[in-house]
Specification:
Ribosomal Protein S5, domain 2; 277 residues; 10 strands; Alpha-Beta Plaits; 38% helix; 7 helices; alpha+beta
Length: 277
């Protein structure tokens, strides 16, 4: 039997910028994990079973994300000979709603790892970030920046550079203060939010270019800081840019909190908030 787990991921800085060629983002791994366990099986029993929230999934037979991902992995690594049990329950709340921690990315990492190991072609996720990003993108119809997969592969704090061939590297941010994630005021449809951003970018190319430059500058200043005190202005600039962009595209990134609390929306809107403790 072979098992693997991968952490959740949260994009702290660089929302929407990571969708662009050369766009920078800073993400962190979160100790919420996806699990996969592969065990020997007869040809009739080989396949994938598990849960995604409150939904039971099984492949062969799944026509959603799991089915698309399995088809991609089968083409890349060869036929599956094992039974793989998946568990992503930690990524969902008690009502079965996603918590916003990148469940599909973490699932991609663990599923690819145990599948490839089972056919004698082991993959080390820390050395195959680009390959795993491609698997995830293909399963989503070519969409996705890849920061989520990269962070679930590498763990820790990750500086991500978006584009057709994205890059990612771990950075030392041990000076970060304690951070808390909390549910924001409203759920966000990420596809709709990205669609709104794309329409805005097409209609306002000069503003979009300025946004990318300012966002990249703020992310780099944050990464190059050596203390939270030094990084605070960059953090605040990222929060300000996110709120302004949210207003411009009609997807709010504002969260009402007491002035004494430093907060920032993370992700494509205000579905998830980050508080600095």
């Amino acid at each position: 039997m072979v098992s693997a787990s991968a952490p959740a991921n949260v994009l702290l800085l660089g929302e929407y910028a990571v969708l662009e060629e050369g766009g920078l983002g800073l993400a962190v791994a979160v100790d919420v994990r996806a699990h996969a366990r592969a065990s020997a099986a007869s040809p009739a029993d080989a396949g994938i079973v598990g849960t995604m929230g409150a939904t039971a999934v099984r492949w062969p037979g799944d026509s959603g994300l799991l089915g698309a991902l399995a088809a991609r992995l089968q083409t890349r690594y060869g036929p599956l000979h094992d039974r793989i049990d998946l568990d992503t329950t930690e990524f969902f709340d008690v009502a079965g709603r996603k918590r916003g921690f990148g469940s599909s990315a973490a699932l991609t990492v663990v599923l690819a790892a145990v599948w490839a190991h089972g056919v004698g072609r082991p993959v080390d996720p820390t050395e195959a970030v680009g390959e795993l990003v491609e698997h995830h993108r293909a399963a989503q119809g070519g969409r996705g920046s890849g920061y989520d997969v990269a962070t679930s592969c590498l763990g820790g704090c990750v500086l991500f550079t978006g584009g057709a061939r994205p890059a990612a590297q771990r950075v030392d941010a041990r000076w970060l203060p304690p951070l808390a994630l909390f549910a924001g005021p409203q759920p966000i449809d990420t596809r709709r939010a990205i669609g709104a951003y794309t329409e805005w970018k097409t209609a306002h190319p000069d503003e979009a270019a300025r946004f990318l430059l300012e966002s990249n500058d703020a992310v780099l200043r944050f990464v190059n800081a050596d203390s939270w005190e030094a990084a605070q202005p960059a953090f605040d600039d990222c929060a300000r840019l996110g709120r302004a962009l949210g207003d411009a595209i009609g997807v709010s990134a504002s969260i009402d909190t007491p002035a004494a609390v430093r907060v920032k929306a993370v992700g494509a809107g205000n579905e998830l908030g980050l508080a600095v403790l």
